[in-house]
Amino acid sequence: MAFAKVTEIIKEAPSFTALTDLAAERLGGKVLYATDDFFAEKENLILPTRGIFITDKYTDRGKWMDGWESRRKRTPGHDWAIIQLATSGKITGFDIDTNFFLGNHPPHASIEAINLTNADEITDWEHLAWKEILPKSHLDAGSQNFYECQSNEIYTHLRLHIYPDGGVARFRVYGEVFKNWDVVSTSETIDLAAAINGGQAIACNDMFFSAMSNLIMPNRGANMGDGWETKRNRTPNNRDWVILKLAHKGTVDKIIVDTCHFKGNYPDSCSIEFCVSDNDTAVINNGNWQTLLPQQKLSADNEHEYVKEINTHNAITHVRLNIFPDGGISRLRLFGKISK
To answer: Taking every annotated instance into account, which residue ranges of this chain make up the domain Allantoicase (predicted)?
Structure first.
């Protein structure tokens, strides 16, 4: 296979890409099955970041590619893969990314979906009551291919079809987490900010080095890039900030601010404010902010836990994390109880 020209094509991302990637491996998504992944493993589809290209890297099956790639099909039919979402959710849009797949990308793809409660018992994925949520659509080579979802129902599993074969670097499924809050007790402690529960990072003043959405991902950060980091700011008394929408209205009992991996670039201090609103735009533009956690000194590469320092408050919907003057935070946890 010859690779005479390697290019990375970047398209302007639609607004739905600011939503949660429900299929993301680091959130708990899984690729359960593929008809063929001879050249490159199906699990690559949901890895973080866009696929990369290494010119001289080969395997015993051919050129190493960072994505899912099936062999050239010499029989009727086409290839497909089953993706289990990290959590059930309502899907808004997709990114079928063929980054660096230039002479070997599928010309078309489609997507089906289903809501399953007994996925562990399924052995025949082909003959289920799938619903088409993206008709057969054109794919550009070496490019992000953005499409809106044609359904507003709740789903747990997707089937990505490629026609007839080839390679897809990444598959993103953007939408909103669905959690049945009716079964969550008001005495149960949960992370109200966690993405897996439906928390969202909705605005910030700066995320030059890494994305605000990393703050609410599971586990501790994998490295310094797996957090929220702002550029160096030379303005005296600067404050950088990020606004999070909680998964559910509730009260906060314990806060963890984790500077994992941030050693020479952690913020000097932080504070957290809260507000109550059913309008995200109003919160971003002119929220009625009150202090939840007064300004606290931070240290490098450390989990900072606060309980007694938290101000008394009623149920809240949004928080604003302020860092002084700039720097990086790996994770923010807001443990508390929902209010019904």
So the answer is: 28-177, 198-338
Spatial separation of the C-alpha atoms in residues 69 and 106, rounded to whole Å: 9
Question: How far is 103 from 2, CA to CA, in rounded Å?
Answer: 9
Question: Residue 334's closest CA among 292, 278, 290?
Answer: 292
Reported pTM: 0.92
With 0-12 CB in 10 A as exposed, 13-18 as middle and 19+ as buried, what is 73?
Answer: middle
Amino acid at 291: T
Cα 4 to the center of its chain, rounded Å:
33
Structure tokens at 161: 């079809």
The residue type found at 91 is: I
- Residue 172's nearest CA partner among 17, 27, 34 is 17
CB 253 within 8 A of CB 189: yes
The beta-carbon contacts of 181-188 under 8 Å, at least 24 apart in sequence, are 181/248, 181/338, 181/340, 184/248, 184/338, 186/337, 186/338, 186/339, 186/340, 187/337, 188/337, 188/338
3-state secondary structure 68-106: EECCCCCCCCCEEEEEEEEEEEEEEEEEEECCCCCCCCC
How far CA 167 is from CA of 73, 95, 140, in Å, comes to 12, 14, 12
**Residue 79 half-sphere exposure, CB side, CA atoms within 13 Å?**
24
Q: Which residues contact 70 (CB under 8 A, 6 or more apart)?
A: 34, 35, 36, 37, 38, 39, 79, 162, 165, 166, 167
Contact call for residues 21 and 172 (beta carbons, < 8 A): yes
Segments in the chain below pLDDT 50? 1-5
